[in-house]
Amino acid sequence: MAQTDNIYNKPLDKVAGFTFDEQVVQVFPDMIKRSVPGYEKMIATIAMLTERSAQNNTNLYDLGCSLGAATLSMRSALKEKTGCQIIAVDNSEAMVKRCTETIQAYRSETPVTVLQDDICNINIENASVVVLNFTLQFLTPEKRLELLTNIYNGLLPGGILVLSEKFVFEDKLSHQLLIDLHLDFKRNNGYSELEISQKRSSLENVLIADTVEQHYQRLQTAGFKHNNLWYQCFNFGSIISIKD
């Protein structure tokens, strides 16, 4: 059972950069639920998108799979498909271990391979669905286009990329309002001002967010011509990209 996220509830002498270590794994479901508005909606919709877009005898990828929520969502939508397999990848040993245990706890005819690796090392091939669920933002900006190009090249015609991210906004007033709404969301979910402040410090220079326009530009450069923001809640959202 997931524990309550209290990692930052006491003053720390030094706030280290955020890492997906064993401590985070223990509280990750609670952390996500209380920190990311719309997360459950996005996970549920991944199943709907998979049901429509997955092709028989193809690969589906969950890049930055964490504990496997998107993987399980995809797999639940493959009951009418044949010959599909899911490749789930994360560079955190603790995440991969727990993800593997979670996947194995649910029986399914669709095979899932969970890999511990840098997602930039993965050769995307014969793919019909690729998910980057709050993952790209943790890559250094110079690596993002290369990864998206690899995904585009590995997708089959009609294949989709689901890209969920935290956004920044060029309009200062809108940007501040959406940040304030997100902070209210966290407060309403029980996080103290100390927790919010220390978590923000831990993510500084670790999570580097882009504007929606920057995402669109990068996706188009990678080859995607059809890109749309299908969901947004405050400064979090998800883009769907379709390959011709």
UniProtKB/TrEMBL annotation:
Entry keyword Translocase: no
EC number: 2.1.3.-
Record-linked SUPFAM superfamilies: S-adenosyl-L-methionine-dependent methyltransferases
Residues holding S-adenosyl-L-methionine: Y39, G64, C65, S66, D90, N91, D118, I119, N133, R200
Catalytic function, reaction form: prephenate + S-adenosyl-L-methionine = carboxy-S-adenosyl-L-methionine + 3-phenylpyruvate + H2O
Taxonomic superkingdom: Bacteria
InterPro entries: CmoA, Methyltransf_25, SAM-dependent_MTases_sf
A Pfam family hit: Methyltransf_25
Enzyme class: transferase
Keyword S-adenosyl-L-methionine set for record: yes
Matches recorded under PANTHER family: CARBOXY-S-ADENOSYL-L-METHIONINE SYNTHASE, TRANS-ACONITATE 2-METHYLTRANSFERASE-RELATED
Assembly and interaction partners: Homodimer.
Family according to the record: Belongs to the class I-like SAM-binding methyltransferase superfamily. Cx-SAM synthase family.
The name this protein goes by in its record: Carboxy-S-adenosyl-L-methionine synthase
Gene name for this UniProt entry: cmoA
